[in-house]
Amino acid sequence: MKEYFKILAFIALSAMIFSCSIEKNLPEGQKVYGGGTIKLTEADTLKDAKIVGLEETLDEMLLPVENSKIGIPLSKYRVPYKVGFYYFIKKEKRRKWPIIRNFVEEPVFFNNTLLAKNAVRLTEYLKSRGYFDAKVLSNMETKRYQAYAQYTAFTGMRYAIDTVIIHNGDGTLASDFHAAASKVSWGKFFDLEKLKAERLEIEKNLRGKGYYYFKPDNISIKADTTLKKQSIRLEIGLKEPVLATVQRQYQINDIFVYVDSKPEIVPSEGFDFFRGLILDDPQKKYKERIFSDAIAFRPGTLYNFELQTITNNRLIGLSNFKFINSRFEVVNRLDSTLIDVHYFLQTQKRKSLRMEANAITRSSGLAGSQLSLNWLNNNTFKGAEILKLSAKAGLELQVGGNKDNQYKDNYRIGLDAQYTIPRFWAPFVKIDPEISKVLPKTLITVGWESFRKTGLYNLNSAKATLGYAWTKGRGIEHSLRPITLNLVKSTNISTEFIDEIFADPRLLVILENQFIAGGSYEINVRQRKMGVGWFSYSGNLDLAGNLFGLYDKIRNDPEKKGKVFGDYFSQFVRLEQDLRYKIDFSRKTSWANRAIVGVGVPYGNSLQLPFVNQFYVGGNNSLRAFRARGVGPGTYARTGTLAEQFLGNNTGDIKLELNTELRYKVNNFIGTALFVDAGNVWMAKDEYIYGPGVLFSKSFLNEMAIGGGIGFRFDFSFVIFRLDIATPFRKPWLEGKERWVIDDFSLKKAYRKENLIWNIAVGLPF
Fold first, then answer.
1. Domains by residue range for the chain, with CATH
2. What pTM was computed for the model?
3. Residue 256: pLDDT over 70
4. Which of 10, 617, 664, 699 could pair with 679 as two cysteines, CB 3.0-4.6 Å apart?
5. DSSP state of 158
6. What is the residue-wise DSSP string for 368-393?
7. In what order do the strands lie in the sheet with 231-238?
8. What share of the chain is helix, strand, coil (3-state, %, to 5)?
């Protein structure tokens, strides 16, 4: 509490000094603009007529922007401290030391004319949202050297759209326009922004049918408010006169592609022809097929604006071109309806080498670094294929936890190769340029890693995958990996570790040779509107050992049962679902929620999922009141034994996690949040490693870990820096009546050291 009063005293003293400096130096008759406030009075109207965040929107429209202030947060009467520095620091010093300019601001003076101008701006905005009877009153309030603007907005009833009349006419354009306008949802209440958005939808529809010159300005929207009280009749039609060029439907004529050619230089010879494309690639850097795949247009088809956007996205997605310029030219011929398309592509540097260094910290007290060297080839075999080769080396040293442990250091080295082909690498799959907005990809990866636990053992692993990734529809991403191979083998087992195994046989799990062979499928649905909020979803399914299990039955060899190449293969099904839902109450306040359900079912050879496939909870993106992998499985309580250090952290075959977070944006830079997280992991069948109380049962809700806290977000535009402070509310490893620990909360050092978790991260948790 003493520190809190010291901070308040410092703020109060600073405010007094700055206030005196400002008041003494202000020009006569001038007041510093202290900002504006808005009181919104809405009429008793229908619930669905209300506009979410209307008051915040009006507040953001006020001009000018007030000076930066210091004082009690959210308090009206705060001190413009940068203005205080402006008067306190002499002009010569401000010029001499450029860094000082970041701490000074010229005062923004109050101007009486702003009251009337802002009132007009607010009234016009309210009318554009359907409040045609809106009125805004303004007033000024002064306090010492500051003047504040006060506005009271009376909205009145919001006008509803009673009738929509879509005019029809003669000709193909009129018919197509009527069809496009009839598909549009004009809304229940008048909203100018929505009307503009629907005009763009009509334009998109018509430009997708060849009307190259059609623009939103060709659409006429008339609103009549005289027919019924607080209601509007909309009349939609083509704005007369309609130019002949606007009425024509244009076709694609020739499609030119220039690789590393300047737009103003168009060669007259040396072209290659491929599937309707005219290619100018003098150095033969690319195979013709890549452009045929990427460019969605074809000669003789109607111009389509959506295909133009798709083509640009595909070319960008190839990650091969530094600059992409396009030019559409109507053929210079009387009454021509033909368009020549030109794409000018400037290639990136084909090969690159990059070195990366990363810091590593682990909850077990280990910390270290990893160095990686990445070599990239952007166009390996002239088909825009990308080959990435990586070599990495890292070490982890004991800096916390049990420093007396002699087996404390870890070393790892690894090699990885990833090969990306911008198409399906399968002869039976065809690409439809009308559907695929992003070119599908074939991903081939291989890797090897060696992990050494000093004085104990080595673990060597090798992996290989073949997968496909594609996008279909609006923001739905798919990833299919039909082949996934992962082999883990232990070597160089020391006698010291064998002694530890005799003391605790659970350590044998570490030395088990694992062979995981199977496939997986993943789907991601990007954020989309659902009800009053925004919904997103991701899910993945992993299958392992099913084909080898079938082979094992056919082979029918008791001596080799469950084995391939001399090692037992894993058999399991793993399913994980991630659902998110966010509701925006206003422009500053939102409520975000997430639910994660993971289920792994081992069968056949396996009693549990391999460690690399198991679930965990805890950490700065999960249960923030608990350390990463620090909860579960079930009611398991860590004892701090040496065996636990070797076995690693708490994981399980089944996972349930629920998160909820109320977010408030103080300003464009600072945001706050109140959050609660709950979850745990459980074993599906085997309790050998952890003991009783770890299996999933009907009492799983009583075994949930719960925690919560407060968060701060700092938005630097390009990145969000996050600080979350959390404490446990419920600890599942305690006895039934003792699990709720929220009453134990204290600010004493002993409690803070044991229970207060500080999470520092980049980006939002979900």
1. 2-154 (3.10.20.310), 160-247 (3.10.20), 251-347 (3.10.20.310), 571-766 (2.40.160.50)
2. 0.79
3. yes
4. 617
5. P
6. EEEEEEEEEETTTTSSS-EEEEEEEE
7. 160-166, 231-238, 219-224
8. 25, 40, 35
